[in-house]
Amino acid sequence: MPFFPFFFFNVVSLESESRGSSPERSFRVPSSSCAPHTSLATAEAGKSQVTTVDDGHISLRLKHGIHTIFMFADAQAPMSEVTKELLELLSERYPDGLTTAMAPQKTMTIPANPKVAYGVLNVPNDPSRGWKRIKTGEDESKTPTACGLKNNSIVAFTFVSDPEDGDVLFEVEWPKDDDEMYDQAG
């Protein structure tokens, strides 16, 4: 039985089958579910919809502020599809905006006509080194794979006014160890 992260606690049933060398997984989500919106399952007006996630999909951990959004993306679809799905999720789940920082409390509202910039860590596993912007191509035509994204990639996102602006700040808050919290208090 494959391991699935806790994000799927509202998934009603899981079917697993193997066809040749590509295992496929189907997820059913009830229409009343509040499970995270991903490309693997969506529910519409009283119906359950099943979407197959296969080897052609990669998992992405999209980060902004204190939020991490786990999403499956078709590795060969353009980044504009990832952006479209991300924006649908954000407008549905966070209509009042995204919490960018806890202390002091800071919220970013989602713009009316948002343009999204993506970034990856300059040094993998070292967030203190900052982020570098991903070049998604004209009209986000590059695929996640062509942008260098792999399965379980950590990807920061932010909203920009000019998609060509090279100077982008990705605001991501990382969890702190208990020791760090005690050091700050004392």
Mean pLDDT: 76
**CATH fourth-tier homologous superfamily of the domain at 57-160:** Phosphatidylinositol 3-kinase Catalytic Subunit, Chain A, domain 1
Uncertain residue ranges: 1-48
Indicate the percent of residues in helices.
Answer: 10-25%
Please report the first level of CATH classification, the CATH class of the domain at 57-160: Alpha Beta
- Count helical runs: 2
Q: Supply the CATH architecture of the domain at 57-160.
A: Roll
Note the main sheet: 5 strands, mixed
The shape is globular
Question: End-to-end distance, in Å?
Answer: 46 Å
Q: Could you tell me the number of beta strands?
A: 12
What pattern of helices and strands is seen along the backbone?
Answer: EEEEEEEHEEEEEH
What fold name stands as the CATH topology of the domain at 57-160?
A: Ubiquitin-like (UB roll)
Strand order, largest beta sheet: 7-6-12-10-11
- For the CA atoms, what is the radius of gyration? 18 Å
Could you tell me the strand content as a percent range? 25-35%
Helix/strand-derived category reads mainly beta
Explain how this protein is built.
- The chain has a domain at 57-160: Ubiquitin-like (UB roll).
- It has two helices and twelve strands, in the order βββββββαβββββα.
- It has a five-stranded mixed beta sheet with strand order 7-6-12-10-11, covered by helices on one side. Strands 1-2-5 form a three-stranded antiparallel beta sheet, with no helix packed on it.
- Strand 3 (43-44) and strand 4 form a beta hairpin.
- It starts with 12 loop residues before the first strand and ends with a helix.
- 12% of the residues lie in helices and 34% in strands.
